[in-house]
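Risk register update: the risk of archive-format incompatibility is retired. Evidence:
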Amino acid sequence: MKTSCTNNENMVTEKKGKLSGLSIHLVEDEYINRRMMSSYLEAMGAQVIISKNGQELLDSLREQQGDMILMDIRMPVMDGMEATRIIREQETVTGDHIPIIAITAQATTGYRDECLAVGMDAYISKPVTLTELTSKILKLQQAA
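Archived output:
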């Protein structure tokens, strides 16, 4: 994934703190993508909990629930679709709901619909722009 970084310093300076107080699980198997997104989210004031695959996320959620999940779809061990199915099944028992944003290179309407059908709340196609990422996070946070 190529994360758009054009004029990021100006944008971060202008919006610093917009995500303050949010605890966000970032689930991404590619190191550079994790690094770019986590750095940006932290600069915006969020606490970022990193997992490299869906199984690591499920293990992490036992310790720290968080406010939102940014979920890559194609990952080793357990992909984002399966992790989302498990989370949504658990929520039927607990009554909780944690917003999940799909992040994927599959930029087709059918794939977007599939992500939403398994229980994801929003969808972003790669390459991720930081403006779109922030917008989706804030929109879901306000709806919660």
